[in-house]
Amino acid sequence: MIEIRGVQKHFGDLHVLKDIDLVVPRGQVVVILGPSGSGKSTLCRTINRLEPIDSGEIRIDGKVLPDEGRPLAALRADVGMVFQSFNLFPHRTIIENVTLAPMKVRKASADDARKRGMELLRRVGVDSQAEKSPAQLSGGQQQRVAIARALAMDPKVMLFDEPTSALDPEMVGEVLDVMVGLAREGMTMVVVTHEMGFARRAADRIVFMADGGVVEDTDPESFFTAPKSRRAKDFLGKILSH
């Protein structure tokens, strides 16, 4: 579903992605772990061209990711993205936030978009908040709305860039539960996170990055019980000791 070959990315003199090769089959959940500055979020953002790459190739469902224009917009419609910040439109209701893109991009009718939107809000547990504004919801509720909004486009792939890092600790679980549900339903997912419990429970693969490169690519059990690299051992020692 996602194929990344030889991807390089610089920010000025800083080489943030170094010859990345990564293949994510359909229905697989890949969790990207690593220390701050390792290139995790940048890699996630390249998958729908929020960050352009210097060289290499990215394919989504067999199609090369275009550089710009309508072909890029069309391919982006198949790639849902959930960010650290919820990015909801503050002056629209929750249901309007969810239905806007399907109506504008997919040309869904207002009735069909609303019906689907309410189904998704029910699925993430916030259907009772449909007519409220984002400011009236908690952070955890807003992030669940952001997930519903991404799902409303019926994406082939879901990208999550630190989706719980801006949340209070008691709100993290409710968002992770939604993501675990998606994983069990077979959604293709790439997740950048520091939530080790989610990584162990929901991931099919762990990709560990450091200094702009992929250091380890393995199953969760192997990574957490027997990491091969010193860099991964140091990372886990610091993370799991807190």
Could you characterize the architecture of this molecule?
- By secondary structure, the protein is of the alpha/beta class.
- The chain is built from 9 helices and 10 strands.
- The protein has helices spanning 40-46, 69-76, 94-104, 110-123, 139-151, 169-184, 196-202, 220-225, 230-240, and strands at 2-11, 14-24, 29-33, 55-60, 63-64, 79-82, 157-161, 188-192, 205-210, 213-218.
- The strands form 2 sheets. It has a 6-stranded mixed β-sheet, sandwiched between helices. Strands 2-1-4-5 form a 4-stranded antiparallel β-sheet, with helices on one face.
- Helix 3 crosses helix 4, helix 3 (94-104) runs parallel beside helix 5 and helix 5 (139-151) packs parallel to helix 6.
- It starts with a strand and ends with a helix.
- The mean pLDDT is 94.
- Keywords: Amino-acid transport, ATP-binding, Cell membrane, Membrane, Nucleotide-binding, Transport.
- Its main location: membrane.
- It is found in: Cell membrane.
Number of helical segments with 4 or more residues: 9
State which percent range the strand residues make up: 15-25%
Specify the biggest β-sheet. 6 strands, mixed
Q: State the share of residues found in helices, binned by percent.
A: 25-40%
| Helix-and-strand structural type | alpha/beta
